[in-house]
Specification:
This protein is α/β, with parallel strands linked by helices and 123 residues long. It has a single domain, classed as 3-Layer(aba) Sandwich (Collagenase (Catalytic Domain)), CATH 3.40.390.30. 37% of the residues lie in helices and 20% in strands. It has 4 helices and 4 strands, in the order βαβααββα. Strand 1, helix 1 and strand 2 form a beta-alpha-beta unit.
């Protein structure tokens, strides 16, 4: 069973189940492990900026331009939503929520992040 943990500390109005299903669908469609675990955090623009500065060493507009970041397990310094006893942990996805965000946009961003966790990257 694929387990998707969604952290929404700011209680943004998003459909957590739609996000979870989007991640599960990507894993299944791409022949991912049926026992995978993934964490998704929904953050505000300021938090995303901090992640981009800290992990990507970006500043200014470059750091503000990320709607989603993915961190495969081997790139994670400190987990934010995963429990140490989880096996087959793919990694963490951070999605920014802003004024234009809808359930579909957030779910699509989480799905995009999942592709990166599976090693599927765009050009």
């Amino acid at each position: 069973m694929i387990k998707v943990t969604v952290l929404n500390e700011h209680n943004f109005k998003v459909d957590i189940h739609e996000i979870q299903q989007a991640v599960i669908d990507v894993i299944k469609k791409n022949n991912g492990d049926e026992n995978s675990c993934v964490s998704v955090a929904i953050v505000n623009l300021d938090e995303m900026y901090k992640y981009a500065r800290k992990y990507l060493k970006e500043t200014g507009e470059e750091a503000k331009g990320h709607p989603v970041l993915s961190f495969p397990t081997n790139e994670i310094e400190k987990k934010f939503a995963f429990h140490p006893d989880e096996k087959n942990y793919l990694g963490e996805i951070i999605v920014v929520f802003n004024d234009e965000s809808t359930d579909k946009i957030v779910a699509d961003l989480a799905a995009h992040g999942t592709l990166h966790l599976l090693g599927i990257h765009h050009d």
